[in-house]
Specification:
By secondary structure, the protein is an alpha+beta fold. 25% of the residues lie in helices and 34% in strands. It contains nine helices and 21 strands. The longest helix is centred in the middle third of the chain and has 18 residues, at 172-189. The chain binds adenosine-5'-triphosphate.
C-alpha cells in the first residue's frame, strides 16, 4: 500500500492546459474520487499517475518513490509503478477462461504455478467467481465480466488501484450493486484507490474523499459531507447535489436580510456577523440554497413566518414518486424546491414555501468563492 502525491502537476497538449497546477495528496488506503464534468482533466490526471502520460511539469510520488519529474528527467514506466488499472472497457481475453484471465498478470510475472492457483482461487472467492472459473467471457453477464476485470487487477496485490469509470458500461441496477461491492472490496483490501467518474452519486456513495475538478483546476478536496455541506465555491455547490443548488442574486441589508427585490429572507445572527465582518452589508452576493432545504410550509419543521417564508407560484411539478421537484417563482426570481411526496401543490397555484436558513450559503459575486 502507498500514498500518492501530486505536487504542482501540469499537463499541456500543445497550447492547451488539460491539468493546471494540481496538488493532491491521496492517503495510504484511501478511496479517492476524481470528479468533474466531461473534459475537465480527470482521465489525464489518472493517466499521469499510471505512467501512460508524462506530466509537463511537477512531481508525482507513489509511496516514497518519485515516479515522474520532467525537470529531473525522471519517468518510471507503468509496469514499474506497482499499480493496477481498471477501465470502462474491460478488455478480457475472449479465448481464455475466467481462471486464465485472472491468472494472466501473475503468469507474465513468472509467479510459481502453485502460488498462482492459490491467489486466483482467493480472488475468485472474494469476488463470487468461484463457480465461473471455467467459463469464457462470452458466457458471462456484464457485471460478471467486470468482476473478472477487477479480479485481474487485484490478483497482483498492487500498491495502488487506478479506475476510470469502471462501472459506466453496466446497466443502472447492476451499477448500484457493483458500487457497493467495489466499496466493500476496497475496504477489505485496504488498497489506495483513485477512481475517476463524472457521476456525483457514485462519488458521494463510494469515496472516502472527493477531488472536484473543473477545467483542469482542482476546486476542492473533501469528504462527501464536506463537499456537500461546505462547498468551496459555486462550481462545487452546483456540481454536487441533484437537482443542483439554487443560486439567486441578493443584496445584504443593514437589518440582516438577503434582499432579492421581490422578497427578503432573514439570515441567522452568526451568518450576518460573517457578512458584516466581510464588509458586505449593502453589497450583492450570490445566495445559494439546495432544493431539499426549501419546504412546502405545510410540512416544514422550521417555520418562522415572515422571516423565512414566502408565497411562490408553482410553475411545473416533476413527480419523482419519493419527492416532488417543484419549479417556483416569486416575481422575477425562480428556484426549485424538493417537496415531500405528500405535498398537495398544484401547477398554476400559489404555495407558502419555507427556506431553512440554517442551510443557506453565500458566495462572493466576483469569483464565486464561498463566504459560508
Ligand atoms: P471525460 O469524462 O469526458 O473522459 P476527462 O475529465 O477525463 O473527460 P480528459 O480526458 O482528461 O478529460 O481530457 C481533458 C482535456 O484534455 C480535454 O479537453 C481533452 O480534449 C484534452 N485532451 C486529452 N487528451 C488529449 C490529447 N492526447 N491531445 C490533445 N488534447 C487532449
Amino acid at each position: 500500500m502507498a500514498e500518492v502525491r501530486l505536487t504542482g502537476v501540469w499537463k499541456m497538449f500543445g497550447d492547451f492546459a488539460a491539468v493546471k497546477d494540481m496538488n493532491l495528496h491521496v492517503k495510504d488506503g484511501e478511496f479517492m474520487i476524481l470528479l468533474g464534468p466531461s473534459g475537465c482533466g480527470k482521465t489525464t490526471t489518472l493517466r499521469m499517475i499510471s505512467g501512460l502520460e508524462e506530466p509537463t511539469k511537477g512531481q508525482i510520488y507513489i509511496g516514497d518513490k518519485l515516479v515522474a519529474d520532467p525537470e529531473k528527467g525522471i519517468f518510471v514506466p507503468p509496469k514499474d509503478r506497482d499499480i493496477a488499472m481498471v477501465f470502462q472497457s474491460y478488455a478480457l481475453y475472449p479465448h481464455m477462461t475466467v481462471y486464465d484471465n485472472i491468472a494472466f498478470p501473475l503468469k507474465l510475472r513468472k509467479v510459481p504455478k502453485q502460488e498462482i492457483d492459490q491467489r486466483v482461487r482467493e480472488v475468485a472467492e472474494l469476488l463470487g467467481l468461484t463457480e465461473l472459473l471455467k467459463r469464457k467471457p462470452r458466457e458471462l453477464s456484464g457485471g460478471q465480466r467486470q468482476r473478472v476485470a477487477l479480479g485481474r487487477a487485484i490478483v497482483r496485490k498492487p500498491q495502488v488501484f487506478l479506475m476510470d469509470e469502471p462501472l459506466s458500461n453496466l446497466d443502472a441496477k447492476l451499477r448500484v450493486k457493483m458500487r457497493a461491492e467495489l466499496k466493500r472490496l476496497q475496504r477489505q483490501l485496504g488498497v489506495t484507490t483513485i477512481y475517476v467518474t463524472h457521476d456525483q452519486v457514485e462519488a458521494m456513495t463510494m469515496g472516502d474523499r472527493i477531488a472536484v475538478i473543473n477545467a483542469g483546476v482542482l476546486q476542492q478536496v473533501g469528504t462527501p459531507d464536506e463537499v456537500y455541506d461546505r462547498p468551496a465555491n459555486t462550481f462545487v455547490a452546483g456540481f454536487i447535489g441533484s437537482p443542483p443548488m439554487n443560486f439567486m442574486n441578493a443584496t445584504i441589508t443593514e437589518d440582516g436580510f438577503a434582499d432579492f427585490g421581490e422578497f427578503r429572507l432573514k439570515f441567522l445572527p452568526d451568518q450576518f456577523e460573517v457578512l458584516e465582518e466581510r464588509n458586505l452589508v449593502g453589497k450583492e452576493v450570490i445566495f445559494g440554497i439546495r432544493p431539499e432545504d426549501i419546504y412546502d410550509a405545510m410540512f416544514a419543521q422550521v417555520k418562522v413566518p415572515g422571516e423565512n417564508m414566502v408565497r411562490a407560484m408553482v410553475e411545473i411539478i416533476e413527480n419523482l414518486g419519493s419527492e416532488k421537484i417543484v419549479h417556483l417563482r416569486v416575481g422575477g426570481v425562480t428556484f426549485l424546491g424538493a417537496f415531500r411526496s405528500e405535498s398537495k401543490v398544484r401547477e398554476g397555484q400559489e404555495v407558502d414555501v419555507v427556506f431553512d436558513m440554517r442551510k443557506a450559503h453565500t458566495f462572493e459575486k466576483k469569483n464565486g468563492k464561498a463566504i459560508f
